[in-house]
Design brief:
Radius of gyration: 17 Å
Number of strands: 12
CATH topology: Deoxyribonuclease I, Chain A
Strand content: 25-35%
Structural class: alpha+beta
Strand order of the largest sheet: 3-4-2-1-12-11
CATH architecture: 4-Layer Sandwich
CATH class: Alpha Beta
CATH superfamily: Endonuclease/exonuclease/phosphatase
Largest sheet: 6 strands, mixed
Shape: globular
Distance between the termini: 12 Å
Helix content: 10-25%
């Protein structure tokens, strides 16, 4: 099973890059964030990507998430839905035969930090429900929190700023504490240069001066089958790079 997540920072600007990425990677599950478009603004091929069950959830020019599931892996259309705490088109969930996956775009918090914390509190409760029910869960997306100082380039470390605050990190740790595993960090526990977002100036991406904000959090039963997890820093022109994880097993037999 291959799961990919990518904050595309405007899907209409990244159409060709997304098409190439899908063609090369053929992920079983593809989560997108910050699509910045409503369905009626998308080209036909994007609305119904060949070979995928597609769900787009966005508004013009701001926020938005999408979730796509490969038909070869899941022959029947999954149930897509939004938890009650969804606002500004920030989360979509798909129930697959043996796991539930969510594409998530956590608020940055710069304009409304309280809203960010409320969203994370709700995500914590959401993860707790799945832990209590013993149901496998995968949370994918731009969490807009660097979990530790190692997840920020030393030149970008600014203790106390949004995205590095102790209260944000504590909430993320609570979420992960509900039986989830930070898959990328498990694969590369000691890599201090593991970033997924780079400010779009001063060649920050080329110099790999960034933050690790895009995560794949998986229930232990799934994470224990991790084969690989990589960030593709050279792919696309978004300020985020795709994160791609491969697990031993299929979407139909992961539990």
């Amino acid at each position: 099973m291959k799961i990919a997540t990518w904050n595309v920072n405007g899907v209409r600007a990244r159409q060709a890059q997304l098409q190439e990425f899908i063609g090369q990677e053929q992920p079983d599950v593809l989560c997108l964030q910050e699509i910045k478009a409503s369905v009626d603004q998308l080209p036909v091929w994007l609305c119904e990507i060949e070979g995928y069950w597609c769900y787009w959830h966005g508004t013009k020019g701001y926020s938005g998430v999408a979730l796509h599931v490969r038909k070869e892996a899941i022959p029947d259309r999954p149930q897509f839905h939004h938890p009650a705490f969804d606002y500004e088109s920030r989360i979509v969930v798909a129930r697959l035969p043996s796991l539930t996956v969510a594409s998530i775009y956590v608020p940055n918090g710069g304009k409304d930090f309280d809203a960010k914390m409320r969203f994370l509190e709700s995500l914590d409760a959401f993860a707790a429900e799945f832990e209590a029910a013993g149901e496998p869960l995968v949370l994918c997306g731009d969490m807009n929190v660097a979990l530790t100082d190692m997840d920020v380039h030393p030149k970008e470390l600014k203790p106390g700023i949004i995205g590095q605050r102790p209260d944000e990190r504590a909430l993320m740790e609570r979420i992960i504490g509900h039986g989830l595993v930070d898959v990328h960090r498990r694969v590369e526990p000691d890599n201090p240069w593991l970033f997924t977002w780079w400010a779009p100036w001063r060649s920050m991406r080329q110099r790999n001066i960034g933050w690790r904000l895009d995560l794949i959090l998986a229930s232990r039963a799934i994470a224990d089958r991790t084969v690989s997890c990589v960030v593709q820093r050279e792919v696309g022109t978004s300020d985020h790079g795709p994160v791609v994880a491969v697990f031993d097993g299929t979407t139909g037999s992961t539990a």
